[in-house]
Specification:
single chain, mainly beta, three-stranded antiparallel beta sheet, two-stranded antiparallel sheet, 3 helices, 9 strands, 15% helix
Length: 142
């Protein structure tokens, strides 16, 4: 008996995403975003929105995020101290160019986490621009 092997495999389908529509004719959310519980790690805070508007800052721990009531996670913010190395080239009074390296350490404050999340778009670039503009004197750097 000869067996004939078929090299053709049946076509397969791949599901890229599934959406849930809690209210008909409203924007659906993907199943990957539809988790109800959320864990915020130590030294982080999470920003919760209700129907796209800021609701509250979630402290470290386990939280309930009822997506079917419009709650969603906008993002997380680290409260750890971070360091930014800024190299500035400047000209002295005697026309000599000097490269100065400023090490700026910064962190977000838990009580102002909403401001840090919504008002700052690129923290590192904004701090670097602040240093380049010469607004930081020796008192700010210490």
């Amino acid at each position: 008996m000869d067996r004939v092997s078929s090299s053709e495999e049946p076509p397969t389908a791949k599901i890229s995403s599934i959406f849930i529509y809690p209210i008909k004719s409203c924007r659906g959310i993907s199943v990957s975003q539809a988790s109800i519980s959320l864990t915020v790690d130590q030294s982080n805070v999470a920003i919760r929105e209700q129907f796209g508007k800021f609701d509250e800052v979630l402290e470290p721990g386990c939280h309930c995020l009822p997506w079917f009531l419009g709650s969603q996670l906008a993002g997380q913010l680290s409260l750890r101290v971070q360091q930014l190395d800024v190299r500035c080239e400047t000209k002295t009074k005697d026309n000599v160019f000097v490269t100065v390296v400023a090490y700026v350490q910064y962190r977000a404050l838990a009580e102002k986490a909403a401001d840090a999340f919504y008002k700052l778009s690129n923290t590192r670039a904004q701090i670097q621009a602040y240093v380049f503009d010469g607004r930081m004197d020796l008192q700010h750097l210490l």
